[in-house]
Amino acid sequence: xxxxxxxWIGFNxxxxxxxxxxxxxxxxxxEPVTTRSAVVWTLIWVSLxxxxxxxxxxxxxxxxxxxxxxxxxxxxxxxxxxxxxxVLIFGYFKLAPRWQHKLLFWGVLGAFAMRAGLILVxxxxxxxxxxxxxxxxxxxxxxxGKLLFDSGDEDIxxxxxLVLRFSRRFLPIATDPPEGRFFVRxxxxxxxxxxxxxxxxxxxxxxxxxxxxIPAVLGVSHDRFVxxxxxxCAVLGLRTLxxxxxxxxxxxxxxxxxxxAVLAFVGVKMVLxxxxxxPTLASLLVIACVLGVAVTASMLHPLPSEE
Length: 307
Known about the structure:
The protein has one domain (about 5-305). It is globular and about 65 Å long. Strand 1 (about 185) and strand 2 (about 190) form a beta hairpin. The protein is mostly helical. It has helices at about 5-30, 35-60, 60-90, 95-130, 130-150, 160-170, 195-220, 225-235, 240-250, 255-270, 280-300; strands at about 185, 190. It has a two-stranded antiparallel sheet. The model has no long low-confidence stretch (mean pLDDT about 80). The chain has eleven helices and two strands; from the N terminus they run H-H-H-H-H-H-E-E-H-H-H-H-H.
């Protein structure tokens, strides 16, 4: 086997090993995740992601390493907006904190599978049909404008989720299931629970957000492993990041503008790539600076209610 095969096998083995460890710990404790635990696990996931990027830099090519870090930063930043919506969904369904960790684990696992497929298909399409690069770039610019002028997440109504409405209409739903179960048997018949329906909303919401993030990372690199690994590393750290974001979301008042700027920057870069070649390091620095300024400004100038 060549180097690329070992790379794919080794990376996926580490990912599934960490997922198995996390799932085992989740089964041992069903109490809500503490802030301290969320900080520790967030640092673990970020550290592992940095190690992957450094490994790509050292053992492959420095350019590939820069592409990994740029894609990872874009995906991680865009996922924060996704987490805001998760907070609203859990609040809407009044999901007990003790079950949020379990639901996010399986939600992230589903997102990992969906996004991996979208990335590989997207990379193949861009390679075969180069004009799609311009389409994706224009779509990102449109998404940036929509995000910038959108009225806000308060307009999101989970009840309007088409997949949720389909599930309620055509799937057998348990009337009084035990807590923490996705499936139960009632009178010998397999039925789905309310927790499963919330998982459906989480997965379809993540798929919707992936329509922005996948074209964004395609604007960073065409290498399938770089695209795949950077996206997977970002997605795997979302669950623990959620419990930090839930507490800090009110303080990140300028993050929305930064995310719109990142989408617009990558979109313009994709549209103009034939005429303007921006080095990967320059892209990484621009994105990092935009996000850093937004977070710093949010901390220095909090909402009036927080002062």
